[in-house]
Amino acid sequence: MPPPFQTERTAFLTYLRSEKQLSPRTEESYARDLDKFLHYCDSRQITRLTDITVHNLRENLAQLHRKGLAGKSLRRWLSALRAFFNFGLRRGWLKTNPAEGLQAPRIEKKLPKVLDVDQAGQFVEVRGDDFLARRDRALLELIYSSGLRLAEAVGLDIGELDLREGAVIVTGKGNKSRHLPVGRQAREALAQWLPERAAVAPADEKAVFISQRGKRLTHRAVQLRLKHLSLKQGMDEPVHPHMLRHSFASHMLESSGDLRLVQELLGHANISTTQIYTHLDFQHLAKVYDQAHPRAQKKKD
Question: Given a cut of 80, is residue 301 above it in pLDDT?
Answer without folding.
Answer: no
